[in-house]
Amino acid sequence: MSTFRAFISIDIEKDEVIDRIQELQDRLKASGADLKLVEPENVHLTLKFLGDIPESRVPEVVEAMERAADTVEPFTLRLKGLGVFPNIRHIRVVWVGVDEGADETKAMAAVLEDELGRRGFRRERRDFVPHVTIARVRSGRNKAQLVEAIRELSSVEVGDVEVTAIRLKKSILRPEGPEYHTVEEVKL
Fold this sequence. Notes:
By secondary structure, the protein is α+β, with helices and mostly antiparallel strands. The chain has one domain: Cyclic phosphodiesterase (Cyclic Phosphodiesterase, Chain: A, Alpha-Beta Complex). It has helices spanning 15-29, 58-69, 102-118, 143-152, and strands at 3-11, 35-37, 44-54, 75-87, 90-98, 131-137, 157-163, 165-172, 179-187. A hairpin with a 2-residue loop joins strand 4 (75-87) and strand 5 (90-98).
């Protein structure tokens, strides 16, 4: 039986928003920090990471996605401000935050967590924080400059995206970076 690495996402595909994210990535890169930037075609908001799942479980996942999608109407996701995980002293991930649309995003994530948890999928131990990862930090090189850039951009306006669907994605890990493919889409 074949398995694949999977997650459920809201894909960010609006050109103006992607362009703005690339501008922010350029500002971060200019700090001289050792970063792995997220490719424009891979920019998304993860609602639930599933890990490796057998293809036979896709129908169960889609059912959980349908329940989550039923909890909200199509909505606007306003991306605003930069933040980090786990914290500013030890930055591993740089992300764009969610302003408007956070409640809808959290509602869908909660339903997915509950529905999939009851089906035996691993539950997340950390609280869900809606965000769009734009860079991963590979080393501590030029950390002070990176922190300064993040602070300067902490309330930057990034743009609005209309959310009308969520997607089950297959992640193929390659040396040059991950490749994501849509397996199923569920409309809100």
